[in-house]
Design brief:
By secondary structure, the protein is an all-alpha fold. Helices cover 71% and strands 0% of the residues. The chain is elongated and about 60 Å long. Helix 1 packs antiparallel against helix 2. It has 2 helices and no strands.
Amino acid sequence: MKETQGAPDQIDQEILAADALEHARLLPPGPERNEALKRASLLRCSADARGPVFAKRGRPRK
């Protein structure tokens, strides 16, 4: 149940990161483009960090 609730947020984050990267690539070389690429990279990292969460394996707690 929680996986389906978190899925749209994950997809939205990935779309935002892809859009930011595409926008940054269209900019002419310079400091503005560098900053846009850095922001796109941060968005990608945050989208990856919100990846799927798996249950821990091993014996259950008593």
